[in-house]
Design brief:
By secondary structure, this protein is an all-alpha fold. The protein is built from six helices and no strands. It binds protoporphyrin IX containing FE and isoquinoline. The site of isoquinoline (ISQ) has 6 residues, from helix 2 and helix 3.
């Protein structure tokens, strides 16, 4: 099933709404991750040594925004080219960072679920099944590209 223009629009539109509350949604994303998978705390350098999720940590925000933006970018590419293309050096570094942190397939499912919950929270009543499918698809394809790279480096 191809990625439609409507799906691309759904992802882009929701990100536009979410941008209005980056600090809140960044923290929410980590809360969801830790709720589903508490051990993730030890993986992130900016969470390791804190009891609570820091509310205004620039690194934390930066990482969360990066993930959202990458999924958006994937949605655009899926519609334009039918596949997710990440530049060689970026992909290499993504592969090695996640490999080195010991990230495995089930972790990708955790982040996916947490991401979807965060989009749902961010867009409020605009949330829909179609929007969920669009984000899921874009995330899955992006995750697949990272996983393929991780296998190459392993
Ligand atoms: C680091 C993106 C999945 C855990 C990173 C970085 C990016 C990123 C951009 C920063 C890389 C750098 O510092 O050069 C993504 C995307 C994902 C994904 C787009 C899925 C499509 C996951 C999953 C986990 C995870 C499933 C596990 C829960 C981490 C950790 C770091 C990291 C622990 C290092 C953070 C630190 O302490 O500095 N990821 N990631 N990532 N990612 Fe992911
Ligand atoms: C995955 N990799 C790096 C940072 C992240 C932040 C939030 C959610 C998932 C992430």
């Amino acid at each position: 099933m191809g990625f439609s223009e409507k799906q691309e629009t759904l992802v882009k539109e929701s990100w536009e709404i979410m941008k209005e509350d980056i600090p809140g949604l960044s923290v929410y994303l980590y809360i969801q991750i830790l709720e589903i998978f508490p051990e993730a705390k030890g993986l992130f350098s900016f969470l390791k040594d804190t009891d609570e999720i820091p509310q205004n940590n620039p690194k934390l925000k930066f990482h969360a925004v990066k993930v959202f933006k990458m999924v958006c970018e994937s949605a655009i590419q899926l519609r334009e080219k039918g596949e997710v293309v990440i530049s060689g050096s970026t992909l290499k570094s993504l592969g090695s960072v996640h490999l080195q942190k010991g990230i495995i397939d089930p972790h990708f499912e955790v982040v996916k679920e947490a991401l979807l919950r965060t989009v749902e929270k961010g867009v409020g009543e605009k949330w829909s099944e179609d929007m969920k499918v669009a984000w899921s698809e874009a995330y899955d394809q992006l995750a697949a590209a990272i996983k393929t790279q991780m296998e190459k480096e392993a």
